[in-house]
Model the fold of this input.
Amino acid sequence: MKTQELLSISKEFGSPIYIYDAKKIENQYNKLINAFSNIPNLRIHYAVKALSNISILKFMKHLGSGIDTVSIQEVKLGILAGFEPDKIIFTPNGVSIDEIEAVSKLGVQINIDNLSVLEQFGTKNPRTPVCIRINPHINAGGNSNISVGHIDSKFGISIHQIPLLLRIIKNTKMNVNGIHMHTGSDILDIEVFLYASEILFENAMNFKNLEFIDFGSGFKVPYKKDDVETNIEELGKKLSIRFNEFCKLYGKEVDLVFEPGKFLVSESGYFVTSVNSVKQTTSTVFAQINSGFNHFIRPMFYNSYHDIKNISNPKGKKRFYSVVGYICETDTFANNREIEEISEGDLLAFKNAGAYSFAMSNNYNSRLKPAEVLWYKNKALLIRHKEDFKDILNKQIELDFNL
Ligand SMILES: *Cc1c(COP(=O)(O)O)cnc(C)c1O
Done:
């Protein structure tokens, strides 16, 4: 989006604010579709947890996407947004069997990642088709917090447990219609991804009724200029060849599924905040903004890098700042970062704030969550009101101790 557009939206709706560019989401979606144009049955299931605003979900539906969900609440949101249950995949981890059964009753595709749950579910519901989440033990993630394929990971059924998995399926006579892997966010090395895919293909031969193979996600997007990113075109070319070969060998054209979150929405998002004060200490110039990790936790939680632009002074001379928040705890967004000269009251825009940004916001320090705006066809559409003080008290019960 253009600096001017960000500036006028932030002034119109107030800051802090999340702004999403619908066109960028659409472009990313089409990029993925085009990279896999040689796959006859490609299905994209947007990972709701990255950014779960209902209008974003409706936009994904408008693009032709399905969704991937991790809680029954996300499933319900998806249904409210208009997704048919058969366009929804449920890929939870560590949730109760009751929740899995409740989601299954809605007609949603269940993806099971635990042998104990598989056996319980299969015994009770042998006719319900289920997908199996395999852990190929590939360490593909960029950060240990988001790498979910390694040997000690809590995710998926280990490839070393396939014999027991097959025994459970045989005993329960359940119907496995899909297999899945999701090796973690930030895949840099396509070869590693392809290697994990081979493990999936090999194991897929154990199942006779597959309708789809789900390769999860984890595509890396650029965070700064010259940043490495997953080469989708190359992955598309290489994986498509192998996938189509697999289908021949398998004797059936199964669907190829991806569940991207970050890839679709990360770059669409901008988080715009205003500078409360510029504070010099003996060693540092701090820019203190009207936000903190209550609104935007990725820099602290994942040590993620987010480009910062002073949209009030976009042509200004660059100087070094540490950008920090107003939370009474260390909440550093950027250390010793070169930014166009900052004055108090300036608006700073953080890039890559579409995925896992608003979605992870909270009310710490009894602060209000910001508004969300979708920039669609050159219009700024409000898709979430900013909170007010009532929201802080909502659901609290006030006791009276004067009795
Ligand atoms: C979080 C998640 C995704 C999305 O991951 P991204 O890195 O945002 O693309 C996909 N599938 C599953 C099962 C997930 O838990």
